[in-house]
Design a protein that fits this description.
Chains: A mainly alpha (about 550), B alpha+beta (about 350), C alpha/beta (about 325)
CATH superfamily of chain A: MetI-like
Strand order of the largest sheet of chain B: 6-7-8-3-9-10
CATH class of chain A: Mainly Alpha
Shape of chain B: globular
Distance between the termini of chain A: 45 Å
Radius of gyration of chain B: 24 Å
Structural class of chain B: alpha+beta
CATH topology of the largest domain in chain B: Rossmann fold
Largest interface: A-C, 54 and 54 residues
Order of helices and strands of chain A: HHHEHHHHHHHHHHEHHHHHHHHHHHH
Number of strands of chain A: 2
Largest sheet of chain B: 6 strands, mixed
Shape of chain A: globular
Strand content of chain B: 35-45%
Largest sheet of chain A: 2 strands, parallel
CATH topology of chain A: MetI-like fold
Oligomer: heterotrimer
Number of helices of chain A: 25
Structural class of chain A: mainly alpha
Helix content of chain A: over 70%
């Protein structure tokens, strides 16, 4: 039974990973089932439904707006040639590097009563006081929707564009022959075919939106995430906070299930007749102008403007903001992000490999179960992670009592807690990106390599991993950026004297003094740009 | 010693029986085709032989070594088999030479290179050594695939519909080439297909499968002329059923007259159906006996008439010189032949 | 086996060895507010300080860490946190004559479980041009219909506001306080958002006429070039001078139950209650020192003397949970 034994090795690893990554959630659920529903009942009777409503509206709004922004952009850059497209293609991904709270703050500053926009309007029109005119208030649910969509649309854009490029162009040519205009072809052929990819991206965006804390908190929009935070830290009821998290998890479960259902219908793509540069619709005249302008407008609001403001702050407040701690914070942020990326990718490969070669009906479970960490917003994650880790530390200390070594808080009090929390949270991204690559590897390659004398481990290393390069790179990029931006979990879990760029910036943003940390904020964005550049370059080489 | 021996092989999945009590013997240097419609279990059988799935019951012996029975199971990588696939399964990230070298990890550098060159020569692709699979045509890729599969001298070659993705123009040439290579290398092979033309061209023996069992095993001519059951008969060629009564050992009575059979049958006095192929039908202008011509088509040497008789449709070729006048009634006759009778 | 693992772990992990002369501080107060004081402490005593700052969540962390916690002291920015720490059994008595001498009894726990370090008033700022100085203003008046659409405040759930609501509960009871809250909510110019300084900024811009804010922010704003215009547009008012006095909050400190450096921690606490540190609190942070006799900063002194609500903090703090519930009941923030 050689084959079965080696299979069980993978099964064990995969399940081990699944258990470890879902332990925080399990602990949290257990905690939420404890008594004390007083606080929860109180919230249920008063504000909880408002929170739910706000959360759902927020998510729906962000999804809608992301589609409106990203889908046309994806189509334009995948199938058309227009002026500047070469630059727009990668530039449109830049907002990914921007944390939502930074963009939220910049826009508040700009559009506030005392901000440059309203001042200019008042001067121009001679208005004196707020009663003289109406101006939109950015610190609302609507404002939050716009802010978050501006930062998250690149997920949909990237995934949709890739899906489009891999569709067989022959299908579009066939539809063209049947008399359909490019626009009709888009709606009738490209969009439905890419449905699976779109739903996957939207599920991702919903999860990110639901977990956003800093923006809604800053905008004073009360959602389930802020409710968890307030309930745990304001009412001091972890149980009630856990129960609210349960509601969020329900939504998440729906999102993931929808995504899985729609993914079932996608097939391995035929890469032979994928789109290449000779197939593009060449736009001219007003269409070309429209395309370029659309890209410019999106880029301006999602990236250029916020960056511009940050740069101007950095220049104005240079003396106060620049200090040697930056390099330290930057280095620390980088270190953490690298570690987490590597770990998350390695783990996801193991889990996905087992999913591929396993014969048990339950083989998809470790992957699903490991992805649940994504549901936990930063603060809840911090507590959820501390639950098992503190237990571990307690046991370890007890066990080693009497020896010379007192580990203290080896797991929950050191960088381990942060890394663990980040991996739990961002594992889902890594798995998603790697899985997208994995399904494109034909099963017959597995059979071929096995028949030629390779065991599972050799197959993984000599066949799968080289072919997974694209997915691994994407996974690494996405996880890296998320780690750089991550805030609430870092705030709570970091060991003494450990700052990341994000925590440093937040300290000042919360005091409405972003100017003083503008250089750190800029750093976060710039560092986030570096991997974007490399991935984009490798994607271009891949395509040509 | 046979190359492959399957005894009593059974596999089920999700409560469904996919293959049931299968027996098969493949002799040395023999090419056997597992032929059947999709869902008949042929690919499952192939995978079981490869070790890619574990049968619940039965024994698999390759080249005298037991690979799988109720107490043991040898992993695929230790069975010394070669495989070919419908989608070629060439590793896209490796060159042609590297692909061929994939199974040669036990060779030292010098021997490995020699073997690669040898295999490339065999398939006439020596100049393509440094190319990548996507730069090659389908036929070329499949040739690389066979080179790769044979490089490490396997005992048995398993081919999973390898010609389905090949352009029709080059398909039969490729079939010939690969058959030649296999014969030259003196390897045995099992080949799975749903196409009887491929089976006829490529295999020495056919095993027609139906619902998880082998309906009949033997050479193509025998199976074609003497199908053991309806499923085999229908699969291997067009035909129609005519109700008939066995009169005696060499005669059958039908509504189209008596038919003399050139082979003796032991179905005396029973009623059933006889299976008639186009070659057994004679059409001529004359008093009609319940036959209708639906279409006619000229293909140079022959006319093909699509006729409806006994409520079935069949296409019958007739030499051009004996072309019918389709405006006049047509008589349907059955020529004497080795009648296939099913009771 | 255990021993081997212990040795292995100790060589592999890079846990910093705890220097003898070091204390760990969990702080709700932002580092730049307390760092100068800590630096001074280190200069004087040679004891190094390590600070972990978080606006929220530190109490939970200390609780989870239990007896392995490395925190020696927790610095809070409001008194309800002090009470919370005590009620969760995370503190130990601060036994120090120095502290007892420096801090008046009403500003420390009778059993020494917590000590207040600075006082701050919850002021109401009024627009200079539109409302003028409101010496006779009371908190209760904020619910009056005459202020409809004129009030700005930060979230009702922030500890500073919760403290105020709790004190209202202590003085007036639940049903009156609830009506008061509903009245104030109806008077809000906009949804509660931002911090205390942002409310003053809103007054300057004309969005509202009254803002709730802590006293020291006023001083801080006057010192900041960008924020000075905001502060210049308002008067600082001390409510309820004609009855019970203005509501006070405090920042404070506790000694953690499982502190590993009790002696050094005590030294820090003593330092913080003593003249030098109290002076720094007063002059740098614009706060009111707890130690009597310590001079106020000139600016703070210029705001005048005022009557303090001297209902014991421990009394007020009892109503904090109810205050939070009420905020949700009237949906103050929504």
């Amino acid at each position: 039974m050689q084959s079965l034994l080696s299979l069980s090795k993978w099964q064990v690893f995969a399940w081990l990973i699944g258990v470890c990554l879902s332990a925080p959630l399990a602990f949290l659920i257990f905690e939420s089932l404890q008594g004390d529903s007083d606080v929860f009942t109180h919230l249920w009777d008063t504000v909880l439904w408002d929170y739910i409503y706000n959360t759902l509206v927020l998510i729906a709004g962000v999804l809608l707006l992301s589609c409106l922004i990203a889908l046309p952009l994806g189509w334009l850059t995948a199938y058309c040639q227009f002026p500047g497209k070469k630059y727009f293609e990668w530039a449109l991904m830049l907002p990914l590097a921007m944390p939502t709270y930074i963009i939220a703050y910049v826009y508040t500053d700009l559009f506030d009563y005392a901000g440059p926009v309203q001042i200019a309007l008042r001067e121009w029109f001679g208005w004196q006081s707020p009663d003289d005119y109406w101006f939109f208030d950015i610190r609302t649910l609507g404002g939050a929707i716009v802010m978050i969509a501006l930062v998250l649309y690149p997920y949909l854009y990237l995934i949709f564009k890739t899906a489009l490029r891999e569709q067989s162009f022959k299908l579009l040519q066939a539809s063209q022959l049947m008399g359909m205009s490019p626009l009709q072809s888009f709606f009738k052929v490209s969009l439905p075919l890419a449905r699976g990819a779109i739903v996957a991206a939207l599920a991702l965006i919903s999860m990110e939106t639901m977990a956003d804390f800093a923006t809604v908190h800053y905008f004073a929009v009360s959602t389930l995430t802020t409710a968890v935070y307030d309930t745990w830290l304001g009412y001091y009821s972890l149980t009630a906070a856990a129960k609210i998290s349960g509601i969020m998890l329900l939504f998440l479960f729906v999102a993931i299930t929808l995504e899985k259902i729609s993914r079932k219908n996608t097939t391995v793509h035929e890469r032979q007749s994928a789109v290449n540069d000779t197939h593009l619709y060449v736009l001219s005249g007003k269409y070309a102008w429209f395309a370029s302008t659309y890209c410019i407008v999106v880029l301006f609001f999602a990236f250029a403007l916020p960056i511009g403001v940050l740069v101007s702050y950095s220049i104005d407040y240079f003396d106060q903001a620049w200090n040697a701690e930056f390099f330290l914070y930057a280095w620390q942020s980088l270190k953490i992000s690298l570690w987490v990326s590597v770990i998350a990718i390695a783990l996801s490969i193991i889990v996905l490999f087992y999913q591929r070669i396993g014969e048990q009906k339950s083989k998809a479970l470790p992957g699903r179960v490991s992805s649940t960490g994504y549901a936990l917003p930063g603060t809840v994650l911090a507590i959820a992670v501390l639950l098992p880790l503190t237990l571990l530390d307690t046991k370890l200390n007890e066990w080693l009592e009497g020896t010379t070594f007192e580990p203290g808080l080896l797991f929950s009090g050191t960088i381990f807690a942060m890394v663990f929390a980040y991996v739990v949270r961002f594992y889902a991204i890594a798995q998603g990106a790697v899985e997208a690559s994995y399904v494109r590897i034909s099963p017959s390659l597995d059979m071929a390599s096995q028949s030629m004398g390779k065991n599972f481990a050799q197959m993984l290393s000599s066949v799968h991993i080289p072919l997974l390069r694209g997915g691994i790179l994407t996974a690494g990029l996405l996880v890296f950026i998320e780690c750089m931006k991550e805030l609430p979990a870092a705030l709570l879990l970091r060991p003494f004297n450990f700052e990341t760029l994000a925590t440093h910036v937040f300290q000042y943003v919360s005091d409405e003094q972003l100017e003083l940390a503008s250089i750190s904020a800029l750093f976060i964005v710039l560092v986030g740009l570096v991997p974007l550049y490399f991935v984009n370059r490798s994607m271009e080489q891949h395509n040509s | 010693m046979s190359s492959l021996s399957l005894k009593n092989l059974s596999y089920q999945y999700d409560g469904q029986k996919v293959i049931e009590n299968l027996d098969l013997e493949v002799a040395e240097n023999e090419i056997v085709c597992l032929l059947g419609a999709s869902g008949c279990g042929k690919t499952t059988t192939l995978k079981a032989v490869a070790g890619l799935l574990t049968p619940q019951q039965g024994q698999i012996v390759i080249h005298g070594k037991t690979m799988s029975n109720n107490t043991q199971f040898t992993a695929p990588q230790h069975r010394n088999i070669g495989m070919m696939f419908q989608d070629y399964a060439l590793f896209p990230h490796l060159t042609v030479a590297q692909n061929i070298a994939f199974g040669l990890s036990k060779f030292n550098k010098v021997d490995k290179q020699a073997r690669i060159n040898e295999m490339l020569e065999l398939v006439h692709l020596s100049e393509f050594a440094q190319r990548y699979p996507h730069e090659l045509s389908g036929g070329q890729q499949q040739r690389v695939a066979i080179a790769r599969a044979l490089a490490y001298k396997p005992n048995l070659l398993l081919l999973d519909e390898p010609f389905s993705n090949i352009d029709a123009q080059v398909r039969f040439q490729l079939i010939n080439d690969i058959r030649q290579i296999i014969k030259d290398q003196k390897v045995s092979a099992i080949f799975v297909s749903h196409s009887k033309e491929e089976a006829f061209a490529f295999a020495d023996k056919l095993a027609v499968m139906h619902q998880g069992k082998i309906a009949q095993f033997g050479d193509a001519k025998t199976l074609f002329e003497q199908p053991a059951c309806k499923e085999v008969a229908e699969f291997l060629g067009q035909g129609i059923y005519i109700p008939a009564q066995a009169y005696d050992k060499r005669e059958f009575i039908t509504s189209f007259g008596k038919i003399a059979s050139t082979k003796a049958s032991d179905n005396a006095q029973s009623s059933g159906q006889i299976y008639i192929r186009p070659a057994h039908i004679q059409l001529e202008n004359g008093p009609t006996n319940d036959v209708e011509i639906l279409q006619s088509r000229f293909i140079g040497t022959e006319f093909i008439y699509q006729i409806k008789v006994a409520e079935q449709i069949i296409e019958v070729p007739v030499e051009s010189e004996h072309a019918l006048n389709i405006n006049e009634p047509v008589t349907f006759k059955i020529k004497p032949h080795a009648v296939n009778f099913f009771s | 086996m255990k021993k081997a693992l212990a040795i292995l772990l100790s060589t592999v992990t890079c846990l910093p060895a705890m220097a003898a002369e070091e204390i760990n501080i969990y702080s709700f107060r932002q580092p730049f507010l307390i760092q100068p004081i800590l630096d001074d402490f280190t200069k004087h005593t040679g004891i190094k300080t390590n600070v972990v700052f978080a606006k929220k969540g530190l109490i939970e962390r200390v609780k989870r860490e239990g007896k392995h916690s490395r925190a020696d002291v927790v610095l809070t920015s409001n008194f309800s946190a002090l009470m919370q720490l005590e009620s969760m059994d995370l503190t130990q008595p601060i036994k120090s004559d120095v502290v007892t001498k420096n801090v008046p009894a009403s500003f420390r726990d009778p059993e020494g479980q917590w000590v207040a370090l600075t006082k701050r008033v919850r002021n109401v700022y009024s627009s200079k041009e539109r409302l003028g100085k409101l010496d006779a203003l009371t908190y209760e008046e904020l619910a009056d219909v005459k202020y409809k659409g004129k009030i700005c405040t930060r979230s009702g759930k922030h500890p500073y506001n919760l403290g105020l609501v709790a004190s209202m509960l202590a003085h007036h009871g639940e049903s009156e306080t609830k009506s008061w809250l509903e009245g104030v909510k109806a008077n809000l110019a906009r949804k509660p958002q931002g911090n205390d300084r942002a409310q003053v900024k809103a007054v300057k811009e004309g969005l509202c006429d009254l803002a709730l804010g802590n006293s020291y922010y006023f001083g801080k704003m006057l010192q900041d070039e960008k924020q000075k215009p905001w502060a210049d547009s308002v008067y600082i008012n001390f409510p309820n001078q004609t009855n019970r006095g203005a509501h006070l909050n405090v920042s404070g400190v506790v000694l953690t139950k499982y502190s590993k450096n009790k002696e050094n921690a005590l030294k820090l606490i003593e330092f913080m209650t003593d003249n030098k540190a109290q002076n720094m609190y007063a002059s740098m942070n614009m706060e009111y020192p707890v130690k009597p006799g310590v001079a106020l900063s000139e600016l703070v002194a210029s705001w005048g003397e005022f009557k303090e609500d001297n209902l014991p903090l421990s009394e007020i703090s009892k109503y904090r949970p109810l205050a939070l519930k009420l905020i949700d009941e009237v949906k103050f923030d929504l």
